[in-house]
Amino acid sequence: MELHSAGEDAIMLYLGEETSPEISARVQAAAAAIKPALGADLVDLVPSYASLLIIYDAIHTDHLSIAHRVRATIAALQTQPGAEGRTVVLPVYYAAEVGEDLESLARHAGLSTAEVIALHSGTEYRVYAIGFAPGFAYLGQVDERITAPRLTTPRQKVPRGAVAIADRQTAVYPAVSPGGWNLIGRCPVRMFDPDAEPTMPVTVGDRVRFEPVSRERFVALGGDLA
Amino acid sequence: MSFKIVQPGILSLLQDRGRRGQLHLGLTNGGPLDREAFYYCNRLLGNAGNNTAIEVSFGGLQLVAEVDTFICVTGADMPLHINGEERPLWSVHAVAAGDSISLDFAENGCRSYLGVADGFTVEPSFGSTATVMRENIGGLRGDKLQAGDQLPCNPVHKRKHYYLAPEHQPRYQNTITVRVIPGYQQHHFSRLQQRRFFSHAYAVSDRCDRMGYRLEGPAIKCDIEGILSEGICFGAIQVPADGQPIVLLNDRQTIGGYPKIGSALSLDAARLAQLRPGGSVHFVPISPHGAHNALHLAQSFAQHQPLLERT
User: Fold this and answer.
1) What is the pTM of this model?
2) Which among A17, A174, A194 is the nearest to B137, CB-wise?
3) How far is B124 from chain A (nearest CA, A)?
4) Which of B22, B233, B292 sits opposite A6 (nearest CB)?
5) Among A76, A148, B104, B162, which residue has the least CB neighbours within 10 Å?
6) How confident is the model at residue A79 (pLDDT cuts 50, 70, 90)?
7) Distance, in angstroms, between A164 CA and closest chain B CA?
8) Which residues of B touch A204 (CB under 8 A)?
9) Residue B150 and residue B9 share a domain
10) CA-CA distances (angstroms) from residue A158 to A67, A183, B46, B125, B133?
11) Is the alpha carbon torsion for A172, B228, B194, A5 positive or negative?
12) B93: Cα within 13 Å, side-chain hemisphere
């Protein structure tokens, strides 16, 4: 465990150096324990792959008190195996029609598109981080056989719901945005809905499985082909 | 009961203090780029402190009051006219239904705050009215103000005509010093690189907005090119592979994978956001203890600064 200063009201807790379910679980456990330990002094928490950014109220407390309480909390932290997040199933319509890079990705991988779909939907992913844009969940790890680097020229406009791969990560675009990931399909579930409760179907630490659905089912579920 | 936008100017946004506790959803803070000017705007008006005001960047805003109330403008020296008559900034003015109000372009600084007694009454989104255009959230429609927009507010008939003495009003310079709390990946920048960063002037580039200010100057090299994506706090100074630092501000993305050398003190980030392209920045290190003291003193100073009353 390492604690570094980040800013005038922020410290950074590092719990490892790589992407792994074990480290991610520790980040989750740390976040869950730090919330009650800091109480009203805590302003915001940003969990990521191997770190936890802790933002505190610098007018009512200070970095020394926060660091002390965080250290004590982490020292007492029980890693509870099995205390994992929920599993969320997201339907995906995999097709070149909505996944412009599906065929080129398959070609590069030396696989058929059916094999790419089977590998992508046959893996259970973990939500490692949420960021970049509201509701953008970084899911890992993608099977090594179907990894693909980011596009050299990002697209100006990636549609909402686009299911995409970059390196060993995959994600569902929560809103129309520019993007450089490889598009392989589309999900009809909204990943970020300000009017819904909860706002997002997943949270950091959850598991995600993708379930291939037909074009008809995708449309019936509210999916947009445009 | 409202104000009607006639001309929105270059960029006018409704802002309150900003969103808190939503970073885990990927929602950034938003809020006023110059917290000091925003604070005084509400304090002069006798508002509680987190009332929604208009952040005007560069100037060019024209609006018409459709209600009797009081307004105040703080921040960059955008000339304020009410019905064609020039009025001082950092000062409360009564307005009546039908009055036309304009803010011209600033010569010094580039952000100002037009507030109204009790604030504009817009619905908060995720606990805040702050407009973040990139996220399409807050304000009206999640977007900047446009001609024809109605900004609702309540009629107010009694307020003190407070003003801040001219000698206590900030002067926005074109060269500023930004205190930096070293942190994050600081240890991945060699002593030589850190010395370079802290001993040269950096110029504000054309790429400066509410997300961050990209600066230009001697390139700083980091031992590593990228890191596992991690949370980015306000003021964080990111150094991408080209070695040109970016100070990340209110509308920054919440996580990212570029190394960071530390974070700017918010008090100085507010002054940075008043600079335009070509403005000059010097960085100096400050310890976490020093930063803590500076924040507390600045808060006490602002709260105890005497307001004068016009009779």
Assistant:
1) 0.94
2) A194
3) 12
4) B233
5) A76
6) low
7) 18
8) 24
9) yes
10) 41, 9, 46, 25, 17
11) positive
12) 23
Domain range for residue B74?
A: 2-164
- Nearest-by-CA chain A residue for B260: A6
The tokens for A116 are 């790419």
Has domain A87-220 been given CATH number 2.40.100.10? yes
Phi-psi region of A60 (alpha: psi -120 to 50; beta: other; left: phi over 0): alpha
Task: Give the residue among B307, B262, B305 at the shortest CA–CA distance from B287.
Answer: B262
Residues from chain B contacting residue A3 (CB–CB below 8 Å): none
Number of domains in chain B: 2
Q: So what's the ipTM on this one?
A: 0.95
Distance CA B105, CA B10 (A): 10
Domain A2-75 class, CATH top level: alpha beta
Per the domain annotation, does B311 fall within a domain? no
- Which residues of A fall below an 8 Å CB-CB distance to B? 4-10, 12, 17-19, 43-53, 55, 58-59, 62-63, 129-136, 138, 174-175, 192, 194, 199-200, 203-204
Distance CA B274, CA B170 (A): 11
* Same structural domain, B120 and B233: no
B266 touching A (Cβ < 8 Å): yes
Q: Which residue in A has a C-alpha nearest to residue B288's C-alpha?
A: A8
Q: Which of B182, B233, B253 sits opposite A53 (nearest CB)?
A: B233
* B233 pLDDT higher than 70: yes
Q: What is the reported pLDDT for A83? A: 57
Q: How many A-B residue pairs are in contact by the CB < 8 A criterion? A: 136
